[in-house]
Amino acid sequence: MPQESANYQLAKLIGENDFSTLFHQGAKDSMYLGKIAKGVVLVVLFNKSTTLGLVRLRVKRAVEELNVVIEKLFEKL
Question: What phi and psi, each to the nearest 5 degrees, are found at residue 10?
């Protein structure tokens, strides 16, 4: 991720190197992004009937599992 990005600058302000997840809330729908290995990003779109807590829990598990898959995939390239 380029160091000029807004997210990088926000992370830097609070003493972090980067954010591994981002959340954007809209009027009807929301977006949750999770960083995976090798620059791959998981994007989850959800509406108000789904709680952020549930999304965070599921994304955390998915990122852990996908990290293994993506790493193995890149080893074969």
Answer: -65, -45
The structure's pTM equals 0.73
Q: Can you tell me the mean pLDDT for 13-41? A: 87
Residues whose CB falls within 8 Å of the CB of residue 10, separated by 6 or more in sequence, listed in order? 19
Report the alpha-carbon distance of residue 47 to residue 37 in Å, rounded. 27
Three-class secondary structure assignment of 18-55 = CCCEEEEECCCEEEEEEECHHHCEEEEEEECCCCHHHH
Beta carbons of 42 and 67 less than 8 angstroms apart: no
- Cα separation, 31 vs 26, in Å, equals 8
